[in-house]
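Q: Predict the bound structure with flavin mononucleotide.
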Amino acid sequence: MLSAVKKVVVGLCLSVVFMSASTVSFAYDFSKSAVVYFSTRNNTPNYDPAKVGSIERLAKEIGAQTNAPVLEIRTAKPYGETYDETAIMARQELADKTLPALAQDIAIGDYDTIILGFPIWFGSYPRAIATWFNSQDFSGKKVYLFVTYGSSGWAQSFDDTKAALPNAQVMQLFDRKGREVKAMSDEQVQELIKESLSKM
Ligand SMILES: Cc1cc2nc3c(=O)[nH]c(=O)nc-3n(C[C@H](O)[C@H](O)[C@H](O)COP(=O)(O)O)c2cc1C
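A: Predicted complex:
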């Protein structure tokens, strides 16, 4: 009898610890939300890892705090191995308004809220995001943006997103320098995300 009681007490304690580690309460209802991101790092093999990787870190933490699925946009063809190689390809795509093929479909029909992250590439969203915008119906969706950058801040990315998604409600969640995010502790990243999501 005593051991059964002990088991229940231990079980309850464990579930409280588990819940406090993985779930944060927010006023916003994230039950129909998805986190979608494109990162420089995962589309540029061998690119200096010290300089990239901020968006993925933030996206995963948003997923952890909201319990929303985290979906990654990847191009079918990777970019270059260095900044210069990648920049030449990306600049050409921007000039030509190319819609690069994606590695897989990311459908948003099941979601009312998209929390979308990308690095600023030449003042706006990478062209892979343009391909994805064109592939989905964003009517009535709420789109919250988070971006990282080297020095430019949002530049044209917010206005360009609003123009690309006229039937969605597009909002800024937060922006940070990529290298600032890379230097943050896990606790600092958790705090940044908690604070940002609390404002939704
Ligand atoms: C092709 C390319 C273009 C970029 N253009 C800009 C830019 O216009 N402004 C800026 O501040 N940073 C620019 N950056 C820097 C990235 O936005 C920055 O490194 C970002 O934090 C990368 O994040 P990630 O590794 O999570 O994708 C560019 C980087 C690349 C590779």
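A: Confidence is low (pLDDT under 50) at residues 8-21.
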